[in-house]
Amino acid sequence: MIKAILIFNNHGKPRLSKFYQPYSEDTQQQIIRETFHLVSKRDENVCNFLEGGLLIGGSDNKLIYRHYATLYFVFCVDSSESELGILDLIQVFVETLDKCFENVCELDLIFHVDKAGLAGAPARAVSAVKNMNLPEIPRNINIGDISIKVPNLPSFK
Amino acid sequence: MALKMVKGSIDRMFDKNLQDLVRGIRNHKEDEAKYISQCIDEIKQELKQDNIAVKANAVCKLTYLQMLGYDISWAAFNIIEVMSASKFTFKRIGYLAASQCFHEGTDVIMLTTNQIRKDLSSPSQYDTGVALTGLSCFVTPDLARDLANDIMTLMSHTKPYIRKKAVLIMYKVFLKYPESLRPAFPRLKEKLEDPDPGVQSAAVNVICELARRNPKNYLSLAPLFFKLMTSSTNNWVLIKIIKLFGALTPLEPRLGKKLIEPLTNLIHSTSAMSLLYECVNTVIAVLISLSSGMPNHSASIQLCVQKLRILIEDSDQNLKYLGLLAMSKILRTHPKSVQAHKDLVLQCLDDKDESIRLRALDLLYGMVSKKNLVEIVKKLMSHVDKAEGTTYRDELLTKIIDICSQCNYQHITNFQWYISVLVELTRLEGTRHGHLIAAQMLDVAIRVKAIRKFAVSQMSALLDRAHLVASSTQRNGICEVLYAAAWICGEFSEHLQEPQQTLEAMLRPKVTTLPGHIQAVYVQNVVKLYAAILQQREQAAEPEAAQDVTQLMVERLPQFVQSADLEVQERASCVLQLVKHIQKLQAKDVPVAEEVSALFAGELNPVAPKAQKKVPVPEGLDLDAWINEPPSDSESEDEKPKAIFHEEEQRHVKQRQPEADEEELARRREARKQEQANNPFYIKSSPSPQKRYQDLPGVEHIPVVQIDLSVPLKVPGMPVSDQYVKLEEERRHRQRLEKDRKKKKKKDKEKKGKPRRHGSLHTESDEDIAPAQQVDIVTEEMPENALPSDEDDKDPNDPYRALDIDLDRPLADSEKLPIQKHRNADTCKSPEKEDVPVTEKKIKKLKKKEKKHKEKEREKKKGKEEEKVGEDLDFWLSTTPLPAVPPAPVRAPHGPPQEEPGANAVIAATQEEGEEARREEPGDKDDNDERDPEKKPSKHKKKKHKKEKEERSKDKKKPKKKKPASDGAAEPVENGALDEDPLPPMSSYCLLAENAYVKMTYDIQGSLQKDSQVTVSVVLENQSSSFLKNMELSVLDSLNTKLARPEGSSVHDGVPVPFQLPPGVSNEAQFVFTVRSIVTAQKLKGTLSFIAKNDEGSTHEKLDFQLHFSCTSYLVTTPCYSDAFAKLLESGDLSMSSVKVDGISMSFQNLLAKICFHHHFSVVERVDSCASMYSRSIQGHHVCLLVKKGEKSVSVDGKCSDAALLGSLLEEMKATLAQC
Fold first, then answer.
1. pLDDT greater at residue B569 or residue B919
2. What is the Cα–Cα distance from B1005 to B993, expressed in whole angstroms?
3. What is the ipTM metric for this complex?
4. Contact B136 A129 (CB under 8 A)
5. Quick one: CATH architecture of B1115-1218?
């Protein structure tokens, strides 16, 4: 089960955060800060798993992250998730964002938080109850003033 | 009005939107907080507008601010307003905000129920979708209860998009409202075979998540999942299923056997690393679960290890990490196969990634053996030197100590080497773990007697170099070792070569810069040293030399007396006075050494950390009982406390007195020793104290193998562990040669003997290496009949516990989900809406009460149902392992009853049937609670409600009364006393199993503190001439009775017996079992495995046994007051039964004693040949007996809160009585 999804930049500024357990705003910020400290210390070519599980829940939890340009994508998951699966999920998520915003960059996330939130929604709704069946994202959401094309996903390796 | 609106919207045109806000924040980097508070003020203004678009925009901005850490809960009501907007764009913003900031404590959340229900039934799938998504984040128990049925209906929606979301959200609903699990489960199961792969995978996910927490309830789904596993091509789903199987196999080893083949196929065929990894993981889990039963899966293990090796060798750090992680799991059960890859693991130690290094370290822990420990530690030591950054170095240090000290220093053959490693570690700069090293030094020195001499020499060298260790303030952590050094030198001063030198080292002025607690130890041990020196000098008849030492003490001690640390100061002044007194005596030529050393006579033995807690409460001692009757009236209350206070004061005075001279001290010491020797509750050394003391001077007797040849025991300067490595190698070599020589001789004599060993010159096994010292590790002391460890293993607040629900039992009518059909209609009017919460609340109350009732029922039925499930599974598991097994046999038996209610719920969506269902529902409640049939939601009803409540509370009170009654029974009552009876010798221990090696007897005791737990005490007696070690008890858990295992171990791990058995010795081990239902007796099968070692070698042995949990063993002797007893009988909610046994000749007195002893009862009252008795089960059932003796017969009438339990108890009692 995914406990939280955090996206922050190289300076630890939160860009998108989603907690699937209620925490007070202060705790949330605290978690983001600590996660940032853990993650930012690490070199580029080390493994992407961290046992910083104390932040959220118990020692069962892992932080799984990827670093793209100026952004860190961090998923906090418990032991029922496949580590490599989550890494792929992050990849898919980023590719989705990329397709939505055409060459996604940090600024896109900053200025289109609401849309990013929606683009992430399938991943998030899914993760809310720990699913990863991304292939089933509706292909085209087109309602009113929002139009988001969801790309064809790369076949799962 | 209209004008105002127009004006408002024109104003609003200049409102900031989200982009403006973000831009603004970026432009105000310096005063961000100020800018944001200004924006929040604006947002508050915007929220006051009537225009929904403006509100939505404001809420949208708030959501962003929430993410930045600002509290927006004040806008909760506005968020709800936006959620109820009809336009999807606004609704979406509302739900997004709600999902970010709503939680169970949000009070306005109850207002959303109807809005959400409306959205759920909206014709637009996106409205429904967004509502589901939002709901998943903030669902509360109330929402879950009210909406469960709506969501369940959506699980059959035409659009897979909705079906999928509905399935997923059901998990959250189950968590918040566990009652919904059973009614919803059949449909969830259907979704496993949904045509849409997304829905299917959603269902798999939900069930996997449920099953992970309570796997046993989902065992019956195994065939279905097996089919999915062999047919599905979706890797995501496969991963989940395979993970689920990993959780299920420990419960059912046969499942594991079935799985091995398809999993192995997958491992061979898949190209996806993630899937491969999960397969390997599950195969490991299977192998672990099989390890006890089937030894021959080496091919699978080899495959796993081989694949993992590929992962570890991969350049991808992630794979490397995971490979190591999985490797550590194999290590636990199959250390041998992992040890082959030691090179790889050591290589990983050099990795630049810290996570990987730490994983590799973990692996090392399990890879060490007697053979390679030295080599591995050497490697680690070199890493310690190289490591930069203190955290990693500290980690290395703790690992070295962990590795060496694991399992009672099992792998250490040469403690001299270990001590020198520890001493070498003290050279580390800036470590925080000085105390760890110190603890190890102390532990080894105390527990390994043979090493003391060496340890003392090393420690005195360390004290000599104290200035190096403690010189800079930076090295503060390491100076802790001086604590150990000082203590060891003092305590074992008889081994010191040059005590005078050490004494001087300890009295150096520099010492006063050490931390207080270390100085205190210094002071104390200086005296011990001093005593030793005195003794030496006096024996050598050098009174002047003795006086010199005293003079030195008198000169140097004042530096400690001036210490700022109170402890040091106090000790130092005490010691100074003592020494001055001695000086006076010495001046008169009085020999003092004898008396001074008497101060420190006796030996300290290690005591297990939990020993004190585990001292059993002696029989007849009730800690809760009053020692004196509590004062009856308020008058005496004033007096009594005074008396107590006075007494206490006296005691204080007494304690301060002992400033007497040594003679007095010595006399007291003697007296105390005497007293302790006679006191059964004083923790004595295990065999007998006298014996130990005899051993004390006999260190020489312990054969320290020819080490003296080459080891300079007095090592000047720095000890180097390498030196010992070489020596150790030489020693082993010698040993090996010797052994070979012996073997050759043997072989010459009996040529057939042990062909296996032939030519095994250099492949010595672990056991072959004899330790250098015949190390007798003094085991930590534990009180006899120590109580089981009292760690609570379960968190009562665990939300998943509530979901531990049997899913195979047919659904009862009362369990249907609440259906509130009328509120689904869009046409419903507002006043009605307001009415709703009232009725809802009422229903809620009812529900809660019902819940309890239901749970009880459930428990009862469970037993029977489990059997059924078991049978089905048996059938499936016993069939040949075809890849696609028809799931039919499992589903058929409970298919019909389950589907029926499920179908009901579907149909309920249509109006009429819904009403019918409603009618049914209150009906059930009436049955359950015997309440009036009136159910119109009106004010009138409220009053009724109250009345009913009162009535009911009366009813409820009755059972509650029992509790205070038994609490009251804790007061001292003469009736509970059994001790006066002249009991015939009785033992509750009965034979468990026996073979040539070992005899096991056992006894089962319940404990009232932990309901549903019993302690099985097993006495193991070594009947052979072999040395028994590595004993492990494994038990095949039943669904009802489970062995409590240490945290982290799986269901099929055995529990190690915490001791070893030399020939002819017996000892007792205790195991805790958790029991669910106690109403019937049960049997558990188990195996004791152990290694029997004698001169000819060692063999693995096994002994099967069957534990019989009689109902009696669930009873706990509980004293009871006679009036409480009477009340209990009057209460009338006990069921009754009786037995009669003829042909009894035993006296009534002894008969009662026998019942008390064997069946854990206490006598409440006895009149002539008639007695009432009471006991209580670990789950709180009261059991009352009336025992009457007639001519040659005895009749027993029993009353108990559970009829089944009583029945079984009386049967057991009958068996006991029949033997009288």
1. B569
2. 19
3. 0.78
4. yes
5. 2-Layer Sandwich (3.30)
